Every structure is written in C-alpha cells, then in structure tokens.
Amino acid sequence: MRPAVDATARTVALAYRPWLAQRLVARCRAPKRVLVAARQVGKTHLAAVETLKVALARPGSVSVVLAPTRQFLRRAIDKILALAQGVPGVAWVEGRLRFELTNGSTIECVSAESANGEAIRGLRIDGVLWADEAALLPRHAFDAARACLLTSDGQVLLTTTPVGRNWVFQEYSSEDAGTARFRFRASDSPFTKADRLAECRRDYVPEKAAQELDARFVDEVGRPFPDTSRLFVKSFPDRSSEPRASLGNVIGVDLGDKQDFTVLTLVNRYGEVRLLDRWQRREWFESVTDIARYAHEHQALVVADHGAGAGAGTALKSELQRLGVRTALVQTAQLGVKKRIVEQAHLDVAWERVHVLAGGVHQGLADQLEHELTVFLSVTRVVRGQEHTVYEAPQVKGEHDDCVVSFCLALWGRAELAPNVGEDEDVSIEALVQQNERLAARLRAPGPGGAWIDLGNGTWVHPFADPPRSGL
Predict the structure, then answer these.
(1) Does 408 map to a domain?
(2) Which of 41, 125, 263, 460 is most buried when burial is the number of CB atoms within 10 A of its CB?
(3) What is the extent of the structural domain holding 116?
(4) How far apart are CA 154 and CA 108, in angstroms?
(5) 9 CB contacts (<8 Å, ≥6 apart)?
C-alpha cells in the first residue's frame, strides 16, 4: 500500500496554483505520463512539483530527474529548489547533485551530456523518473533510466517540446493502456500574451510555429534526417580480399579545438560507414598524427571542414600533405556549401545508399551519430534580403553536430571527390569550389516538375520526394 500524502506534500500543492491543463496532468494516475507542450506554458514547473510531491509522499523512495544537458538539468534543479524553500526537510547536496529529504527519500539529478544516462545504473527508481526536454535526449539514455523501474511501481513523466518525429513521438503515439498523453498549446495557457504569440506566428515559418507554439510533431520539413531506422546495421561484408586502394576510402574530419570534438568518419565506395574516432580537448596540431595514421591505414582521402577558409584548416592540410596524405578542404561556413553537403548526405540516407556500422566497439559513436542526426535542424534565415537554409545542431549548450558534419563530409568526398583524385593529386579549395558550382548547376537544371535533376542518361530524379523517386 502506498503511504498517504503527508502534510509537507500538501504544502507543495498549496503553494502551487496550476491552470486547467496542469491540473489534468497532476490528477492523472497513469504509470506513464507524456506531456508534449509549447514553449513557456509551465511544463517544467509542473513536473518539478510532481517530482517533489512524490518524494515527500513516498518515504525512502528514489526519484530521478534526467535532462539532455547540464544547462537543462540546472533549470529543473532551480525549479525544485524554489519550491523546496517553503518545505521543511528538503536539502540540496550540490556535490552529489541530489536532493535529500528527512523522510529518507532522494531525488537524483542526472545529465545525459555528462553521464550519457549511465550514472543511474544500479539505482532502483520507486518514486518518479522525470525526463525533461525528452525530445533532446538520446533514446539509449532514457532506456537506461527506464530499466531502473523494472522491479518497482515508480512513475514515468516525460515533458518536452517536440523535435521532429523521434522516439518521443513513438511514446506519445503508443497505444499502451498505461500511458496518458497530454498536449499543451501556447494559446491554451492563461499566461500567454496574445500580442507576443501573434508576433511569433508572424516571424516563424509554419513548421516552426506548429512545433514550438502548437506542440505538434512536425514530420520531415525542417529535419534533414527524419528517418534513420534503416541507416544503422550490425555488420558489413568481408572486404579483406580487396586491395584497400580499390575501396575508394574517404575520411571526413570535423576538426575541433579544446572545446569542440574532432570526429573521423570513414566511408568506402560501397557506402559502408564507420565512425573511427572522436576526441576532445586537443589543439589541431595535436590531432595531425592520429588523422594521418588513420588515413595511411585505410589509404583514404581526407576531407576536412575548413569553416570560413581561415584558421587551422590550411595548416592542417599542409601538415597532412607533408605526411603523404591526400587532403581536401571544404569551406562549410560559406552560404550554400554546407547546404549542398548536407543535402548530398540526405539523398544517400533517404535512398539507402549508405549504412553505418553499429554494435560492439562502434556502438557508442553510432549512438552519438544517431542522436545528432535526429536533432539536426534546417533553419530558414534571411541574409541581405534573400532566404537561405542553414543546417545546424539545436542552439543549446551541450548539443553538438560534429558527428553529423564528419559524416556529411565523408559522403560528399565519396560522391564528388574520391573518384577523381589520383594517388599524388591534391584537391585545392579552388577545385572544390568548381565541384560546388557543377553541383549547383545540376540542382538548378530545368526539368519536369521544376526540382527534378537530370542524371544525364535520360533519367530524371526528384531528390526531396518521400520516398525519393525517378521518372520522366
């Protein structure tokens, strides 16, 4: 039998005045509640109240707050701290990132960014598992946390604004009888200012408004990689009998500095992708030896991100060439260049021309790539009076796109560069610009339906159909 709600839990309830939709969530007794909500409608505040109430009402229980990054985690912690000020017997232990209650309950606070969700392994959650901004969480981090509920009657509470149709959409759409689903629109909240809401609707593209203001799961628009369900595989055919030089290997390098990650992704002419390595807190010149080692081991062309064309890229290229490595630089910061590279990867993934090795030693990096692909965004911006599509990770501290950029560079090199680069030939920035111009001309070529591309053999293809299709 569950213990009765004590006076301190009632204190929290009395200090909180929920609006109608929040009351519906609070009164729900389903073991799993999925709350999909617009921005600024009180979902985090509601979940903080529910988590603290459960900890107070169940002496000796363990609850967990799981957030995608330390920044989001701190916001959840601050909400609980503010509520706990008027509640006796609740202490925050900063060094352990947890709340300790005099009734023996604890609320553990975990960031998937710092611990990848693994920090809670071994815990038995019999209070509540609250996943805040769940759509930004890697699926495997949530699964690791949910496994801590296997022997208890603990509750699950997911709160988030939608980010495409990822795993949260699957949870929300589940027909499981134990799952309760709620959706809050910005217009539902009594605290939303009508003039501000109208201003946002004017400024947002329709898809962004649907997602952030109406809490709708936007399918493909605005998400370059909406479906990666067939991208990851457990094994590749044995290629050991083929000379490595004949495999057409390309290594895409997203070069980081002490704050960002450096990622190396290998792809061969068969479209078989392996994430080779990912490291952080190293200057570019400390990475040269390892990049050259991987390039020689796989006899690969290196395609590296050159940003806006300044900085470490040129020096990296010179050092790699000195070590006998064929190298190409791509200025992804130039308008249109990154767009074309990402769209090349989009086509390869959509047409299943590439697959990524997962499982075993590759699982961790494959999981990171899958997460980054899921949350990767296409954002329409106006620059000097013209609309441009920008591809980037969510502008949230702790979110990265280094694996995505490395992946896209490798696929670009495979499609546009590798077949045309000899053993001793270098690909200069000027040559790469010419490659970009040729691709741009192909994309602008007039054809049936306007956006169709002429492949030159009497076949026209439409790259952004779902699924991609060919025709005349």
Answers:
(1) yes
(2) 263
(3) 7-212
(4) 14
(5) 53, 56, 57
